[in-house]
Request: fold
Amino acid sequence: MRKYNVFAIITLLLISCNGTNFDKDKKEIMTIMDLQAQQWSNGNIEGFMDGYWKSDSLRFLGSKGLTKGWQTTLDNYKKAYPDKSAMGKLVFDYISFEPMNKKQMFVVGKWTLQREKDTLGGYYSLLWQKFDGEWKVIFDHTN
Reply:
C-alpha cells in the first residue's frame, strides 16, 4: 500500500511540474510572438526575425515551397514586403500549443495582415525549440 502512495505522489508531482512548465513555456512563446508582431507592424523585419533560429538549418514552408536558412528567410521577407506600407499591421491569433518534449513546442494559429489597401490572412504552424533557455522558431509553415 505504501509503495502505491509514493507512486501516486510522484505522479502528481510530475503532472503539476509539467503543467507549470507548459504554462511558462506557452507564455514565453506568446510574448516573443507578440513582440514579433509589434516589430513587423513597425516595419522592422530584422526585429521580427529575432524570433527565428539564426541558422542555415532554419526551414520555412510557404506558398513557393521549402526554403532553408535564416538569411534566405530574411531576404525573402524583404523581397515580398519592401516597405512599411506593404508590411501593414500583423496580428497573431493562437489556436493550439502542443509540447513535443521539454525543449520543443508545436504552435498553430492564424495570422492577419491589415494594410491600407487590403487585409491578408492565413494559418501558421511553427515548431519552436529552446536553445540555452531561449525559444526560437526552427520550422515555419505559413500559408
